[in-house]
Amino acid sequence: MVGTGGYTTGFVGGGMSGSDKKVGVVGLTLFDLRRRGKVGKLSMVGTSGFKFPATREHLQKNISCKYNNLDVSFDSFPSDTTSHDPNAYKAAIDALTPGDAITIFTPDPTHFSIALYGVQRRIHVLITKPATKLLAHDQELLSESQKHGVFVFIEHHKRFDPAYSDAKARAKDLGDFNYFYSYMSQPKSQLETFKAWAGKDSGISYYLNSHHVDVCESIVPNYRPIRVTANGSKGTAEGLGCVRGTEDTISLLVSWEKQGEPGKTATGVYTASWTAPQRASVRSNQYFHYMASNGEIRIDQAKRGYDVAADSAGQLMWYNPFYMKYAPDEEGNFNRQTGYGYISFKKFVDAVTALNDGKITLDELDERTAYAEKHDCYNGNPGGRKEKLG
After folding, report:
1. What is the Rg, in whole angstroms, of the alpha carbon atoms belonging to the chain?
2. CA of 4: how far to CAs of 50, 114, 187, in Å?
3. Could you tell me if 142 and 229 are in contact, meaning their C-beta atoms sit under 8 angstroms apart?
4. For the segment 21-76, what is each residue's pLDDT rounded down to a tens digit?
5. pTM to 2 decimals?
6. Which of 13, 120, 126, 297 is deepest in the core (most CB within 10 A)?
7. How far apart are the first and last CA of the chain?
8. What is the C-alpha separation between 250 and 240, in angstroms, rounded?
């Protein structure tokens, strides 16, 4: 596990995350997959070893003690006495054996270098979205993964959301793509975690708009973007300590064209913000509207008809147990193996195991649309090829 932040451990700023993922997703999922015999030895790498003693205490108290003494042990890099080592991931990867795998949940600008280092050492790689910030880096990872015979998987759990995957299937019968609008936000408190790189090394559009751009493209793989413009709002993030010029909200306006039928075009509008209200009823508000020539689809991922009001929260909360559910089962074990936040990791682990065992090939994995889609990607060369994984 490369990256020790909130999504991996639920441990942020010296304590439990204030989000709805208070014990994280990556670590808990892999600890449970180890209990089920699907993974073996686990390790975790960050940039500071000073954080690991408190992280272990957090995991022991909030995961192991809650889920039947679930084993939360892991090797850590760098050592607990190392204050800062941005290259610790290299030592962690060097300790692995070809055919092993890593997960990458780190700031956007670091994805490419970490993934490439692993791929070139024949390590399978799962990367959170966006995989990279540059198309050239995306293509280099594809080329290197083929050269070294390893699987690179972009962890986009929204593809496994039952509502989103059902919508994708139904959209095929609605005719030609005409219009897509999406919105996704997170509260201002997120910038406290991200301000070291937010607006400087990456922006909110890479971080959040990547979700629905991918959803849209996966629904209409026979369309390609031919023009993109963007507009951003500023002021709030700067006041929260981010560098000057950091955008609060970014909207993309994308023109799409049907391949082989240039007279058929569509419009996509994708909006993302990390300056939503602190006390919104949901951690991540997200929804989309898809319109085609013979019908339309609307999905509100946040409002699923499940509201909880508690004095301790001081507000009405909208929960999404279809993603991750943290209540244990009747035997005391973790009990959300069917959540789409968990499924994406299990699919990666199962694919890597099958590949290592010679039961499947990379080409066969590429043909599985749940994993990968090969398609023409407009990059100034309409015949160029790109692979999108996950």
Report:
1. 21
2. 12, 14, 21
3. no
4. 678 999 999 999 999 999 999 999 999 999 999 999 999 999 999 999 999 999 99
5. 0.88
6. 126
7. 18
8. 17
